[in-house]
Design brief:
Layout (H helix, E strand, L loop, with lengths): L3 E6 L3 H12 L4 E7 L5 H8 L3 E5 L7 H11 L5 E6 L5 H9 L3 E4 L4 H13 L6 H11 L6 H10 L3 H11 L4 H8 L3 H15 L4 H10 L7
Parallel strand pairs: 1-2, 1-3, 3-4, 4-5
Length: about 220
């Protein structure tokens, strides 16, 4: 099985060096490139085709929020985006998730947590740090008062089972864990998750969970 390839984007060379050392110590992870600013991300993504971009949220020329938007808007079959941040409870992080990032990672995280985050985001089968995403939604979200998110949820017309799956997704459960809760097969859950994402127009489960909070489908409180 080929390794998960990662592009590192951070204006601090020491941060990039630290992440590279942690990731390349794993046989299933490979750092394929580095950049010091979000402005360099799109050409590198097109050239290197990484599976995951680990990107600082605050950079001098183009920050991680705008770089995330640019990648998702212009690159076909874009990589997963993992925002790297100093502060967990940061409005910039929530805006990056809103923009389409798949998760976030604290710069002070332990090596095992960094490795786990990259693998989890690459697999895309569960939510990274669900409690923290809920806290960010409570702090910086619209508290269910986002008209566009409410309208999108109404248009989605989720079935009762799909709605149940979305609620379990907001708790961070993996497909296997959801299958255990609902006493169904994992493949059945994958089908339900795919249907939820398609109906909500969400690129991944992180975006579906953000939509669930902002539409008032579930409360982050």
């Amino acid at each position: 099985m080929p390794p998960i390839t990662v592009l590192l984007v951070d204006d601090e060379p020491l941060v990039r060096a630290g992440l590279r050392a942690v990731l390349e110590a794993q046989p299933d992870l490979e750092v394929v490139g580095e950049a010091a600013d979000g402005a360099a991300v799109i050409p590198l993504v097109r050239q290197l085709r990484p599976d995951v971009v680990a990107m600082d949220v605050r950079m001098p020329l183009l920050d991680g929020i705008e770089a995330t938007r640019a990648v998702l808007r212009t690159v076909p079959d874009p990589p997963k985006i993992l925002v790297v941040t100093t502060f967990e409870n940061d409005e910039y992080v929530y805006e990056a998730l809103r923009a389409g990032a798949d998760g976030f990672l604290l710069k002070r995280a332990r090596p095992a947590e960094i490795v786990h985050a990259v693998r989890l985001v690459a697999e895309g089968e569960s939510l990274l740090f669900p409690a923290s995403v809920r806290q960010l939604a409570a702090e910086y979200g619209d508290g269910g008062g986002n008209p566009a998110a409410r309208a999108a949820l109404e248009r989605a017309q989720l079935t009762e089972r799909e709605a149940e799956v979305l609620r379990l997704m907001t708790r961070g459960l993996s497909n296997a864990e959801i299958a255990g809760q609902l006493v169904v097969g994992t493949e059945t859950v994958k089908s339900h998750v795919s249907a939820v994402l398609a109906k909500l127009g969400a690129r991944d489960r992180t975006q579906a969970v953000i939509a669930a909070y902002e539409s008032g489908f579930v409360s982050p409180g």
